[in-house]
Amino acid sequence: MSVYNSGDVALESASFSKCTADSDGGGMFVDNSGDVSLDGASFSECTADHGGGMYVWDSGDVALEGASFSECTAGDYGGGMSVWSSGVVSLDSASFSECTAGGYGGGMSVENSGDVALEGASFSECAGAY
After folding, report:
1. pTM, full prediction
2. Closest Cα to residue 124, out of 103, 109, 108?
3. What's the rounded Cα separation, in Å, for the pair 84 and 31?
4. Which part of the chain is the Right handed beta helix domain (predicted)?
5. Which residue from 61, 70, 81, 83 lies 20 to 30 Å from 33 (Cα-Cα)?
6. Cα(first)–Cα(last) distance of the chain, in Å?
7. Gap between the Cα atoms of 127 and 41, Å rounded
8. So what's the pLDDT on residue 130?
């Protein structure tokens, strides 16, 4: 799923499985858009260079509730998800398991964005090269 130059993005109980992208966001890519809100989304075995499961770039706030990332892989950074140049990032009861990155942020990477708030988030067996 790709969303570019749009308003807010809201998904409920969406499922992404075995999705791939050559560059960004194997399951979901959001660029230059409004706030991103996912409730109960799941990403499994998704692959990309950046943000194996999900990549949000140059957008508003990012809020995930009950999201799960399982066995997602990034060639560079953000095995499960990556957020770049966006607003506040908040995760409530999100889980990351067995996600990997060839660079950094096996489970998740956030750069050049607002505050990051994790409540009840879990990371299990995620790994980055550095």
Report:
1. 0.97
2. 108
3. 10
4. 14-128
5. 70
6. 29
7. 22
8. 85
| Residue 81: C-alpha distances to residues 54, 75, 92, 93 (Å) | 5, 12, 15, 15
User: By the 8 A CB rule, do 26 and 52 touch?
Assistant: yes
Residue that the structure tokens 């050049």 belong to: 112
CA pseudo-torsion sign 112, 115, 121, 123: positive
Enter the tokens of residue 109. Answer: 């990477």
Q: Are the beta carbons of 53 and 83 closer than 8 angstroms?
A: no
Edge-first strand order for the sheet with 89-92 is 9-12, 36-39, 62-65, 89-92, 116-119
| Structure-block tokens of residue 120 | 């009840």
